[in-house]
Amino acid sequence: MSFLCCGSSDSKDLDTTAVNVTRKVETVKSTNVTMAAPIKVVVTGAAGQIAYSLLYQVASGAVFGPEQPVYLHLLDIAPMMGVLEGVVMELADCALPLLAGVLPTANPEEAFKDVAAAFLVGAMPRREGMERKDLLSANVRIFKEQGQALDKVARKDVKVLVVGNPANTNAFICAKYAPSIPKENFSAMTRLDQNRAQSQLATKLGVPVQNVKNVIIWGNHSSTQFPDASNSVVKIGGGEKPVPAAINDDNYLKTTFVSTVQKRGAAVIAARKMSSALSAAKAASDHMRDWFLGSGDRWVSMGVISDGSYGTPRDIVYSFPVTTSNGKWKIVEGLTISDFAREKLDLTGKELVEEKQDALDVCKD
């Protein structure tokens, strides 16, 4: 495999180490399997911790499948280009058969050119003691700029996953400033919260984590989110059983379970003095894989543009239970919302409406 690494025009250091090879790949053949043409995938904040775990998953086939080559576009700020050079070296040293090439750059328009999938990871990180609202002012401007770049140069069917916080509102702003791309193509990551919730329930029940499905994250990726186990099921004792019946502790499901998932990110920060990285990368991979390849018989939680389902405010990015197939998501319909859940859904919706307005005010400045 010829490994392509072309530096940004803003980065002389990368230019001098670049391998000046032009490669136009139509098909890649390996062990008698004919693979598809490579798709271009951008990861922002590519020199950061989350990307460090995410890039291998994307380039190894864990996201887009074992027969889909990828051409990685790596975006970060100019001061991080030296670090990014090391990341490019490591990707080369992995000798990954599905990695068709790498473009490191500090230029958003270069990064987003013709991409089919975008992982928007780069943002000011949340540090110990910070509230989400402290992040909003700086990060909204980043996602406004990236939305404009996507609108200008990305494929119109690009799937955009926003990981950088506040993820829901950043996704809303990014979509707003990319009007030529359907709003349905922008989503915010609440899969990390779903994975956390699923793990907590599996531990409580003493079963493998894959035996628990259909736990829901409603609303915002924040401390107001509502982890909801009321519709989840578990394989246990040779059959399937509703999780609430299997746990048989309604107080736990309304208190300890909810608060543990809501505060898990802060707990990780307190323990490792840095925000979640490994688990966030895994969740981003899960989210994009299911969006591209389908969720099967499982519900997955995605922050998507609200159509008012379940009495939620319209035109905000709100996490719902969805199913995915053929590259499309669909909100699960017909679920019963208890009085307890109604209060939680409304609370997180109110926060998102307020965040949206704050973000729009920032964009006017």
Task: Explain how this protein is built.
There is one protein chain. The chain is built from 13 helices and 16 strands. It is α/β, with parallel strands linked by helices and 365 residues long. The protein has a 6-stranded parallel sheet with strand order 5-4-3-6-7-8, sandwiched between helices. A 3-stranded antiparallel sheet has the order 9-12-13. The radius of gyration is 20 Å and the shape is globular.
Helix/strand layout:
Blueprint: H1 12-17, E1 28-30, E2 33-35, E3 39-44, H2 49-60, E4 70-75, H3 81-94, E5 99-105, H4 108-112, E6 117-120, H5 132-153, E7 159-162, H6 167-176, E8 186-188, H7 191-205, E9 212-213, E10 216-218, E11 226-228, E12 233-236, E13 239-242, H8 243-247, H9 250-254, H10 256-262, H11 264-272, H12 278-293, E14 300-305, E15 317-325, E16 328-331, H13 339-364
Helix pairs in contact: 2-12, 5-6, 5-13, 6-13, 7-10
Q: Briefly, what is this?
A:
The chain contains 13 helices and 16 strands. The chain is α/β, with parallel strands linked by helices and about 375 residues long. It has a six-stranded parallel sheet, sandwiched between helices.
